[in-house]
Amino acid sequence: MNAESVKYDLIIVMPVYNEEGSIITVINNWLNVLNYLSINYQIRVYNDGSKDKTSLIVKENFGHISQVKLIDKSNSGHGPTILLGYKQAVDSDWILQIDSDDEMQAEPFKQLWMNRDNYDFLIAYRGNRNSTFLRSCLSFFSRMTVMILFGNGVYDVNSPYRLMRTSVFNNIFHKIPDSTFAPNVIVSGYVNKRHIKYFSVEIPFKFRTTGTVSIKSWKFIKVSLKSFGQTCLFMFKNKI
Question: In 3-state terms, what secondary structure has residue 231?
């Protein structure tokens, strides 16, 4: 069978930017969990224009493993990168989005996967998270944006640890503009608006010890306003 025609149970969308210090550990941890669950899966590593050796490290350590696919792309940011992954994951029953910074562990995914039959959206929210004041403000602002525009429901609206049934979300993925800064906020809003039955679990959170933080403190207000504006525009342009 042609590799491009394979139908997967699960495609993992992992955006990566300058993670040479942690990428081997992160991918190995996920391989261990996914293999334990006996899932027909593929991890798609979207290298978002990293300036370090991330791409080379992935090729050298995982190039021989069919379950890991590296996609090198020019830098567009975290949001547009995961959205690209969503739109390209039509060959799967489920899509899982995870980050590559090792802040949220792979082991709790077992809870999401074992509960998937009764839900279309399963999300891990970040516990024990002693965030900076600005990060806390960004999370609060995102949550309020979703609640005002779409209604109450999902708590950690921008959590980068979400399992989604492809057939339910494929249409909304393709409606979201490619340049959207925080597509996960819109997806969480969609869950609330459509009253999609969802499952959530709290998992431990730890701060990164390697890699590059993509948003510096002085940009938080700017990106919050950008996300709010894009979410509002999407809401008013689309009937969801």
Answer: helix
Residue-wise pLDDT tens digits, 81-111: 999 999 999 999 999 999 998 888 999 999 9
DSSP state, residue 26: H
Strands 92-97 and 162-165: antiparallel
Give the residue numbers spanning the domain of 74: 3-237
Query: Could you report the per-residue pLDDT of 189-203, keeping only the tens digit for each?
Result: 999 999 999 999 998
Round to whole Å and give the CA distance between 91 and 230: 28
Q: What share of the chain is helix, strand, coil (3-state, %, to 5)?
A: 45, 20, 35
Find the helix packing angle between 166-175 and 78-88, rounded to 10°: 130
User: What is the spatial distance between Cα 143 and Cα 217, in angstroms, rounded to a whole number?
Assistant: 19
* Count of the separate structural domains present in the chain: 1
The pTM score is 0.89
